Amino acid sequence: MDVADIRNLMRKTQASILKNGFLGKPSDDLGNVVASDGVRAMMESALTARDRVGVSDFVLLENFTSEASFIENLRKRFKENLIYTYIGSVLVSVNPYKDLEIYTKNHMERYRGVNFYEVSPHIGKRYDLRHIEEEGDGARREFPPFRGIPLNREPSELMLQELVWSQKRVENRLKQQRGTDSSDVYAVGDNAYRSMRTERKDQCILISGESGAGKTEASKKILQYYAVTCPVSDQVQTVKDRLLQSNPVLEAFGNAKTLRNDNSSRFGKYMDIQFDFKGAPVGGHIINYLLEKSRVVHQNHGERNFHIFYQMIEGGEEDLLRSLGLERNPQQYQYLVKGNCPKVSSINDRSEWKLVRKALTVIGFNEDDVEELLNIIASVLHLGNIQYGEAEEGNSCITSDTQIKYLARLLGVNGAVLTEALTHKKIIAKGEELMSPLNLEQASSARDALSKAVYGRTFTWLVNKINASLTYTDDSSKHYSVIGLLDIYGFEVFQHNSFEQFCINYCNEKLQQLFIELTLKSEQEEYEAEGITWEPVQYFNNKIICDLVEEKFKGIISILDEECLRPGDANDLTFLEKLEDTVGGHAHLVTHKLADTKTRKVMARDEFRLLHYAGEVNYNVNGFLDKNNDLLFRNLKEVMCMSENKILTKCFDREELSDKKRPDTAATQFKASLAKLMEILMSWSRRTSAASSPMTPSRRFDEVLIRHQVKYLGLMENLRVRRAGFAYRRRYEVFLQRYKSLCPDTWPSWQGKLREGVATLVKHLGYKPEEYKMGRSKIFIRFPKTLFATEDALETRKHSLATKLQAGWRGYSQKTKFQKLRTSAVRVQAWWRGILARRRAQRRRQAADTIRRFVKGFIYRHRERCPENEYFLDYVRYSFLMNLRRNLPKSASEQLRKLCMQNMVWSYCKKINPEWKHQMEQKMIASELFKDKKDNYPQSVPKLFVSTRLNGEDLNPKVLQALGSEKMKYAVPVTKYDRRGYKPRPRQLLLTSNCAVIVEEGKLKQRIEYEALKGISVSSLSDGVFVLHVPSEDNKQKGDVVLQSDHVIETLTKIAICSDKINSINIIQGSIKYSVAQGKEGIIDFTPGSELLVAKAKNGHLSVVSLNEYPPLEHYLRLTSEVLLSLN
């Protein structure tokens, strides 16, 4: 291939590559996009990778009707840490029970604004099941027109980018997939967000699964994704913070440790996230469903109550617990010991408590709200500790009033009234109110009912409070878009199934019905739009089960409500009997009475069985009526209505007391709220996410548990509906753009109509008529194996095309690079030759000028200095001095240095004024006395000595009069310590020519002649205490004088100069002895410490503690030099 052929090929395949670059790289780096070594091995491994890690969309599963194939695909992906797999728009997640590091901010940015099919499956992005391609890691993924590359580029450019990128992708992806799932969490959320922005339609993401499947974590990850990737302002940031912080609050009050999950949500949650026209979150709203209130009063073995109780006990401050009447031991509370699991290794209650308190503040709770909320939580624990005893006639009574006192204070109610309400029931008969005493069992039930009511209503208030803080308050624009996030319980089948499981499974029946209807509807609409004949799909329609549960007058809920409301002795067994009489002939209902002999062996007499879409479930009717009634005695309501707690006054409305209408039962309320939820979901675009989890202690793939969850999540039914028609469909332009290289007639570009081009392509590929259909704008492929065969052929074709393009491009780029290098080398050589020539010419000119000046200077050497001879004269002098230096003896050099130093000293001293000379003399004396001897000497070095520390205004005139003609040389304020009691007394020390005088106000207290001064003692530490020693035999003196000065260095230097006793100053380490009176001695002990302290010690000595931390002497010397420079 010559250069002309290479250029022709490049012009056909990549016309604009030099202008725009390639895959984000400069054109010069294109040779490195794909490494040549090892590419063939990578390409061949990519063709078999599908067998290793399975497919990322179950719609492309060949044997889609086999549950074993379904689970095997999950196993393959789980083994490779690929936890996300699609069924069309349903995302199946397998909880890995470990951190895969795929939820970081970098991963969020990776999914932000990216085409939906450009990245791997994730909770944040929803895939369209019809547009899938084979990835290098074996994952089946959907692609845009060549992964988000703009369609306005030339087809040849697109194909080159796809081919070269594919080989690099295979190499990188196989490396990256070791130990980390590249399919990140944010695909569904990002696609829902972009659909909301572009289509202006509200979106909804549904998350369902069994306990421990990761529903709560998935919803939190989606919220975090929106918080990080959406536009930000101050107001928006506040809303983002509140949305995120609502999670720890709701988890604390609504989550608990169960046998399957340490952080199980015990309520359903639907959250609206409201976005403005810019796409920024500006508000939100939360609806909660069916809180498991029974957990407040009872937990199974190995389970815990709601987190908030343990967090408050473990993390609450001592003052808080004391005010709430609580102890830091959960074993002390009856509501917390039934599960026998006070602590969980995976939960740090103390740190979680701090997060909850911080979250409450962020959401907008003030101190009063938090205090009253915690009072209610504490009151629930105190209610559980109320103990009943048996009084006369079998009636109940409260054995201790300790808990009642706490409850009265925490709830703000009257203790006596509360006591009566907990032991009596108010009955209204013919307009009269009667108080009927309760027996032990009834009283305990009343107490538990109050606890559940208080906690349940408080939880509802908490949700409403969070909603108030998330309300979008901008009246200027009332139009906003919404993304709904539904975190709902999945199908539950336990060994003992009760009323809660009945409601939860009823909810899942409705959701399954919704999934199937929406799937069939969307499929049928697309077929009709493309002109493809719609083939009716046979599927299990669970509407018959929904009707069995919710039908008016005949449904199970209606029968349950009727049994709850009817007069007479109604109980759970009568409900079961009425169920048998009313709907006993229904095909999906079985009871012990109606069952055959084989079934009766596995069913109890108090159970009924429903044949759900996901399988059979036995429900035990014990507790159905009580849980459905959820009634609270009237007098207990009255007590709560009288509460001074503001939260309880909102939770218990006084209108309830006057409203004679019986409140709706729990099942009816749940049915109504579920109906509203279905209306919301039916009216919006759907983005669904389902979750399943292995949940084994060893974190291995538990096939039995996975099969159980696949069944009860209805995944096989969902897959079967989606695969009833064509598994893959794609627009003509995209299909042709991707696979045109497989046909000579369509490569490198097709000039005719797109439909004809696709028809030519599939004919060349050998598609059979039953394998595909041609729609108006799309091609429909029925079998995944047809698509896989096409993909494998494309992978093989890519290698040869990419190799050819690489060879042509490398030759062209290397030739271009060589031409550039050659041109550059010639330019550099010419530039460097010019520099060398100019340097040589400059040196020659400089040499000629030097010779000329030297010759002219020699001619004029005997004249006066002038421009003609100055160069010559300077050179002669320089030569003479340098020759002299080389020939001088060593002693002469030292003598010259001394002479120079003396000259410099003489010059400096000549410039000093008398005042500065006096200052330097004093400093020299201070240096001789104290340098390296006293610790605070360096501190005094940069400070100038002053002539006196006391002015004439500071001295009493009587003192000056008493001094007479004696001239005062220095005065300083000092502190004198008594010789015996060491009491500090303020004094003034005056220095004259002959003596030192100690003055108290106007009196001369002591006069010490310099001749009589025996010496001066001072410690080596940084204190200011010194002692003036005087003769003990002198009757005029009372003993040695102990003084303290803030300027001790200056004061002692002045005394030494005035008394001419420089050598009499003694610097002592340790203790100083001094004379108190004739024959008696006193001792001063000096010790270093953190602060200055002078006081009498227990041993009778004077104790002086001095500071021991001062900067090094070099610091003060530097300051001194700066001061000297400023003065000069």
UniProtKB/TrEMBL annotation:
Keywords: Acetylation, Actin-binding, ATP-binding, Cell membrane, Cell projection, Cytoplasm, Cytoplasmic vesicle, Membrane, Methylation, Motor protein, Myosin, Nucleotide-binding, Repeat
Domain TH1, chain residue ranges per copy: 934-1108
Binding residues annotated for ATP, in chain numbering: G209, E210, S211, G212, A213, G214, K215, T216
InterPro entries: IQ_motif_EF-hand-BS, Kinesin_motor_dom_sf, Myosin_head_motor_dom-like, Myosin_TH1, MYSc_Myo1, P-loop_NTPase
Superkingdom, natural source: Eukaryota
Pfam families with a match to the protein in the record: IQ, Myosin_head, Myosin_TH1
UniProt-recorded name of the protein: Unconventional myosin-Ic
Naturally occurring in which organism (per UniProt): Pogonophryne albipinna
